[in-house]
Specification:
CATH superfamily of the largest domain: ATPase, nucleotide binding domain
Largest sheet: 6 strands, mixed
CATH architecture of the largest domain: 2-Layer Sandwich
Number of strands: 11
Radius of gyration: 18 Å
Strand content: 25-35%
Structural class: alpha/beta
CATH topology of the largest domain: Nucleotidyltransferase, domain 5
């Protein structure tokens, strides 16, 4: 299986190509300017693996959650590349990629959290699976950090910058958290691995059907909403 994966949904911009020889990737925390970086990274990893788009089996596209602009870039670039090469795409969300990152370190249960600003986090719970890579134990959600809960009893690994932005999450019962994990961002290498599993199972879709995963319908609070939140806090 040969899979290109790309992600621009967070502060990081990353691209990876998975082949039978392993995974080659590029990862850079850019904050802004994802649109200018992403295609350069795609060209770089394809050149390193000596592949053309037409030689791939599909594209794993990050669909969020994350920044509105970043998610749109990721989805539109994946669609454009897939249409041009006649490839199927498979959506992978950023929380899944974070959880798989934790599972490479031996975790069997993971709580992935990204900072969603406005006092909230994007979060999801996952368990390792020998064939599928992982299984979701909850639907991806956005909520105040104080509303996050886990559906299991026992130890789990926390991962993602939601933990860095909201240290109280590390006090959840059973949480195992390292400094590195609390600063982790999604990486396209993990999306490529999940994408290969899903494409191999026949889960590829037409690029036209690829859709962003938006968990929040607005990105800013009005002055009245800010005042109400300060009072409730």
């Amino acid at each position: 299986m040969r899979v290109l994966a790309l992600d621009t949904a967070t502060e990081a911009c990353s691209v990876a190509v998975l082949t039978e020889r392993g995974v080659v990737g590029r990862f850079q925390e850019v904050g802004r300017g994802h649109a200018e970086k992403i295609l350069q990274m795609v060209d770089a990893v394809l050149a390193e693996t000596e592949l053309r788009l037409a030689m791939l089996d599909g594209i794993a596209a990050s669909v969020g959650p994350g920044s509105f602009t970043g998610v749109r870039i990721s989805v539109s670039v994946a669609q454009g590349l897939a249409f041009g090469a006649g490839l199927p795409v498979v959506p992978v969300n950023t929380l899944e990629a974070l959880a798989l990152q934790a599972m490479h370190g031996g975790a069997t249960q993971a709580l992935a959290c990204l900072d969603a600003r406005l006092g909230e986090v994007y979060w999801g719970c996952f368990r390792a699976h020998p064939l599928l890579g992982l299984l979701a134990c909850s639907v991806p959600a956005v909520a105040p950090a104080t509303a996050v809960s886990v559906p299991w009893v026992g130890a789990f690994h926390g991962i993602g910058r939601g933990f860095g932005a909201h240290p109280g999450l590390g006090a959840l019962p059973g949480a195992i958290l390292t400094a590195a994990a609390s600063h982790a961002l999604p990486d396209a290498k993990d999306m490529a691995r999940l994408g290969a599993i899903r494409l191999g199972a026949g889960a590829g879709i037409d690029p036209a059907l690829l859709a962003p995963l938006y968990l929040r319908d607005k990105v800013a609070l009005t002055e009245r909403e800010r005042a109400a939140r300060r009072i409730s806090d």
